[in-house]
Amino acid sequence: MGKSDTTSVNRKAEIISAAIEVFAEIGYYRATTAQVAQRAKISQPYIFRFFSSKEALLLAALEVSWTRVIDSFRKVMESSLSEQLESDLIRAYDEILDSYQNEILLQMQAQTIQENSIREEMRKGFEEVRRIVLDAFRDAGIPNSKERTMLFLARGMLCNISTVLDMPELMEK
Amino acid sequence: MGKSDTTSVNRKAEIISAAIEVFAEIGYYRATTAQVAQRAKISQPYIFRFFSSKEALLLAALEVSWTRVIDSFRKVMESSLSEQLESDLIRAYDEILDSYQNEILLQMQAQTIQENSIREEMRKGFEEVRRIVLDAFRDAGIPNSKERTMLFLARGMLCNISTVLDMPELMEK
DNA sequence: CAAGTTAGTGATTCATCAATTACTTCTCTA
DNA sequence: TAGAGAAGTAATTGATGAATCACTAACTTG
């Protein structure tokens, strides 16, 4: 079976999905590869045919989660009118938080992990999201786009916390 | 030695300080009580004379970190003029981030920990900080104080991330 | 159909860790 | 100065977990 066959690609994606769930629910360091395997309905050692280590699996899971946000924002940017750009971006992020909470929870965990490969992936993700939002605001002719971008990201981060701690009052206006 | 003697109180505080450092640097779940003990220059089992479990130690560390923020904000509230209230609060928080980064890093970790006692401590901390800021904004006659409070907290959360990931550009205006 | 390749697992290894136990050493003070 | 309590540790325990190894079964292709 080569890289081009879809079987192994699906298996890999299944393992990543299971890992996102288990890591988010239990915490990356506390979660065991056996738990991930159980969720993916495979044996524990089989994970290591696809990922060289538990950390490599986390990295793959983070990539998926950042791609989710970035693709979603890009899509908004392409289709949204200038006047409703920001509200469309907010809506897009709310939908991600609703449908893929685990991926955001995993990102939040990864914010404080010190391993270099993880930190770099997180920096890359944040930087790319910031770039997209800033360019979109500028294209839309929004004044003070840098500050508006910062505030957009800031509200997003508080929204994460409000969601995972189940404290809706934190976002009240 | 009773509870009123300062020796044991100091030891307890020393252990908490060591735990804040080690948990922040290494991650709560990955850090070992032996590492905390080494940092505190005591033996590993001695920790359990003061804390019934590793989790109880984390809880104590979180209490310290929230008290730091709350006391600091209360002090600002008492002494600050209305016009500079928000900038004084920002300055106070910046100083905490500068001098006690590890405590903030620990709070960030705890945001995603699912244990009930930890979640409750985090909710309590956030709720109390929000209360203080909101009351202060209202007292100062700031309009839209609820939204302003939300934005203040939001910027704080982004500032945390910007600091721990060493990405100053995230806070650029 | 034979021989290679892919998919997958059970058992094991080696290291690590939270927590307990049982012990020693130090410090007052009656 | 005896001895009671406080401060502290070494050694152990019992469990757990990432990663490896050795193996089997099922496909596929010349």
Automatic annotation (TrEMBL), chains A, B:
It comes from the Bacteria. Residues 32-51 bind DNA. SUPFAM superfamilies: Homeodomain-like. Keywords: DNA-binding. This is Transcriptional regulator, TetR family. Residues 9-69 form the HTH tetR-type domain. InterPro entries: DNA-bd_HTH_TetR-type_CS (IPR023772), Homeodomain-like_sf (IPR009057), HTH-type_TetR-like_transc_reg (IPR050109), HTH_TetR (IPR001647). One of its GO terms (molecular function) is transcription cis-regulatory region binding. It comes from Marininema mesophilum. The lineage of its organism: Bacteria, Bacillati, Bacillota, Bacilli, Bacillales. Pfam families: TetR_N.
